[in-house]
Amino acid sequence: LSKITTTTTTTTNSRSHPRPLLASSTPPKKMAESELDGITQRSVTVNGIKMHVAEKGEGPVVLFIHGFPELWYSWRHQIVALAEQGYRAVAPDMRGYGGTDAPKEA
Protein backbone atom coordinates (compact mmCIF):
# COMPACT_ATOMS: atom_id res chain seq x y z
CA LEU A 1 0.00 0.00 0.00
CA SER A 2 1.16 3.50 -0.68
CA LYS A 3 1.59 5.74 2.33
CA ILE A 4 -0.28 9.01 2.54
CA THR A 5 0.62 11.31 5.40
CA THR A 6 -1.11 14.05 7.28
CA THR A 7 0.11 16.24 10.11
CA THR A 8 -1.35 16.04 13.60
CA THR A 9 -0.29 17.65 16.85
CA THR A 10 0.36 15.54 19.93
CA THR A 11 -0.80 16.65 23.37
CA THR A 12 2.65 16.18 24.93
CA ASN A 13 4.35 18.95 22.95
CA SER A 14 3.67 21.50 20.24
CA ARG A 15 5.56 19.73 17.42
CA SER A 16 3.71 18.06 14.58
CA HIS A 17 4.36 14.45 13.64
CA PRO A 18 3.39 12.85 10.31
CA ARG A 19 0.86 10.03 10.69
CA PRO A 20 -0.06 7.58 7.92
CA LEU A 21 -3.61 7.59 6.56
CA LEU A 22 -5.21 4.44 5.25
CA ALA A 23 -4.95 4.54 1.48
CA SER A 24 -8.35 2.83 1.19
CA SER A 25 -10.12 5.70 2.98
CA THR A 26 -8.63 8.46 0.85
CA PRO A 27 -10.16 9.07 -2.58
CA PRO A 28 -7.79 9.21 -5.54
CA LYS A 29 -7.12 12.68 -6.93
CA LYS A 30 -9.05 11.79 -10.10
CA MET A 31 -11.86 9.26 -10.08
CA ALA A 32 -13.45 7.81 -13.18
CA GLU A 33 -17.25 8.01 -13.23
CA SER A 34 -17.36 4.20 -13.18
CA GLU A 35 -15.46 4.19 -9.86
CA LEU A 36 -18.21 6.27 -8.27
CA ASP A 37 -20.85 3.68 -9.19
CA GLY A 38 -23.54 6.35 -9.54
CA ILE A 39 -22.73 8.13 -6.26
CA THR A 40 -23.46 11.84 -6.63
CA GLN A 41 -21.51 14.52 -4.81
CA ARG A 42 -22.61 18.03 -4.00
CA SER A 43 -22.05 20.88 -1.59
CA VAL A 44 -24.74 22.13 0.75
CA THR A 45 -24.60 25.08 3.11
CA VAL A 46 -25.94 24.48 6.61
CA ASN A 47 -25.84 27.30 9.19
CA GLY A 48 -23.17 29.05 7.11
CA ILE A 49 -20.98 25.93 6.83
CA LYS A 50 -20.28 24.50 3.36
CA MET A 51 -20.50 20.71 3.56
CA HIS A 52 -19.53 18.12 0.97
CA VAL A 53 -22.08 15.30 0.72
CA ALA A 54 -21.98 12.04 -1.26
CA GLU A 55 -25.28 10.23 -1.79
CA LYS A 56 -27.12 7.61 -3.79
CA GLY A 57 -30.55 6.04 -3.91
CA GLU A 58 -34.11 6.87 -2.92
CA GLY A 59 -36.10 5.75 0.09
CA PRO A 60 -35.49 5.89 3.84
CA VAL A 61 -32.23 7.68 4.67
CA VAL A 62 -29.20 5.86 6.03
CA LEU A 63 -26.60 8.37 7.27
CA PHE A 64 -22.94 7.35 7.24
CA ILE A 65 -20.60 9.28 9.56
CA HIS A 66 -16.88 8.71 9.08
CA GLY A 67 -14.31 8.61 11.84
CA PHE A 68 -10.80 10.02 12.12
CA PRO A 69 -8.91 10.27 9.77
CA GLU A 70 -11.32 9.25 7.04
CA LEU A 71 -13.72 10.80 4.49
CA TRP A 72 -17.06 9.85 2.92
CA TYR A 73 -15.02 7.69 0.53
CA SER A 74 -14.49 5.00 3.17
CA TRP A 75 -18.26 4.27 2.94
CA ARG A 76 -18.39 4.05 -0.90
CA HIS A 77 -19.10 0.31 -1.05
CA GLN A 78 -21.81 0.48 1.63
CA ILE A 79 -23.43 3.49 -0.09
CA VAL A 80 -23.84 1.51 -3.30
CA ALA A 81 -25.05 -1.66 -1.53
CA LEU A 82 -27.73 0.14 0.51
CA ALA A 83 -28.91 2.20 -2.46
CA GLU A 84 -29.43 -1.06 -4.36
CA GLN A 85 -31.59 -2.27 -1.45
CA GLY A 86 -33.94 0.73 -1.70
CA TYR A 87 -32.35 3.19 0.73
CA ARG A 88 -31.02 6.70 0.25
CA ALA A 89 -27.43 6.49 1.50
CA VAL A 90 -25.92 9.83 2.55
CA ALA A 91 -22.29 10.34 3.62
CA PRO A 92 -21.09 13.86 4.46
CA ASP A 93 -17.49 14.84 5.05
CA MET A 94 -17.34 16.01 8.66
CA ARG A 95 -16.11 19.52 9.55
CA GLY A 96 -12.53 20.09 8.47
CA TYR A 97 -12.41 16.98 6.28
CA GLY A 98 -12.52 16.66 2.49
CA GLY A 99 -14.69 19.35 0.91
CA THR A 100 -16.34 20.49 4.17
CA ASP A 101 -15.34 23.77 5.82
CA ALA A 102 -13.12 23.59 8.90
CA PRO A 103 -14.18 25.31 12.12
CA LYS A 104 -12.91 28.91 12.22
CA GLU A 105 -10.99 28.28 15.42
CA ALA A 106 -9.04 25.38 13.82
What's the short story on this structure?
The protein is mainly β and 106 residues long. The chain has helices spanning 33-36, 76-84; strands at 4-9, 16-21, 40-46, 49-56, 61-63, 88-92. The protein has a single domain, classed as Rossmann fold (3-Layer(aba) Sandwich), CATH 3.40.50.
How would you describe the overall organization of this protein?
- With 106 residues, this protein is mainly beta.
- It has a single domain, classed as Alpha/Beta hydrolase fold, catalytic domain (Rossmann fold, 3-Layer(aba) Sandwich), CATH 3.40.50.
- It has helices at residues 33-36, 76-84, and strands spanning 4-9, 16-21, 40-46, 49-56, 61-63, 88-92.
- The longest helix has 9 residues, at 76-84.
- The radius of gyration is 15 Å and the shape is globular.
- The model is unreliable at 1-19 (pLDDT under 50).
Which characteristics define this entry?
106 residues, mainly beta, Rossmann fold, two-stranded antiparallel sheet, 6 strands, epoxide hydrolase activity
Q: Determine the mean pLDDT.
A: 79
Strand content: 25-35%
> Which percent bin holds the helix content?
10-25%
List the domain count as a whole number.
1
Order of helices and strands: EEHEEEHE
Total helix count? 2
Q: What structural category characterises the helix and strand content?
A: mainly beta
State the major sheet.
4 strands, mixed
- Write down the Rg: 15 Å
- Low-pLDDT regions: 1-19
Tell the overall outline: globular
Oligomer: single chain
CATH homologous superfamily title? Alpha/Beta hydrolase fold, catalytic domain
Protein name: Soluble epoxide hydrolase
Keywords: Hydrolase
GO molecular function: epoxide hydrolase activity
Enzyme class: hydrolase
